Amino acid sequence: MRAVREKLEEIGLDVRAFAGLKIAAVGGVTADALREMGLEPDLLPTGEQSAKGLLEVWPPYDDVLDPINGVFLPRADIATDTLVAGLQEMGWEVDDVTAYRTVRAAPPAVEIRDAIKQGDYDAVVFTSSSTVRNLVGIAGKPHPTTVVACIGPATAKTAEDHGLTVSVLADEASSAALVDALADYGHRLRAAALEAGEDVRRPSDKRPAGRRKAR
């Protein structure tokens, strides 16, 4: 939404340009961004917050009720064609516009790459499919002992397609829900370990004084 707002400002328009249009959002985060602009979404997924979830509640085109069958769809350049294809199958004409491009980050330092591969991180958090592809591309796969947490089903599938085991999946596609899900998973692991009589101290807490794990 930030890219759309910036483009409107660039051409001298504001949210009044959306007057008379129905607005759909793929999930809660997008809906909140719309509300910050003063726009209330008319359509939101009732189940899975994804392109698939939005298609489940999107009505098919009706030439009596909908004299105009055009849908303006601003999205990332790497987004899947799920929504476009689904809308077209229901009779809608989609104006598919690239609103922003995702650029791969520079590879992290060697020490960070080694830490990722060796399991020095307790968890890795993925907030989109592109974060999965980019991390694996520039740093390699996280160690099997690292907990993999994903923001939604599409991201989880991408992680699994890259050979990762997803242990945590957010209830809804938001950063807050993802953090809560990861924290809940950690609490459950700790409770299970305590019940089994295992030592739940962190490795760094078990080392004798004067010894520290190399970073």
UniProtKB/TrEMBL annotation:
Membrane spanning stretches: none
CDD domains assigned to the protein according to its UniProt record, in alphabetical order: HemD
InterPro entries the UniProt entry points to: 4pyrrol_syn_uPrphyn_synt_sf, 4pyrrol_synth_uPrphyn_synth, UROS/Hem4
Region of interest called Disordered, as start-end residue ranges on this chain: 195-215
Comp. bias regions, Basic and acidic residues: 198-208
UniProt superkingdom: Bacteria
Domain Tetrapyrrole biosynthesis uroporphyrinogen III synthase: 3-179
This protein's name: Tetrapyrrole biosynthesis uroporphyrinogen III synthase domain-containing protein
High-level lineage: Bacteria, Bacillati, Actinomycetota, Actinomycetes, Micrococcales
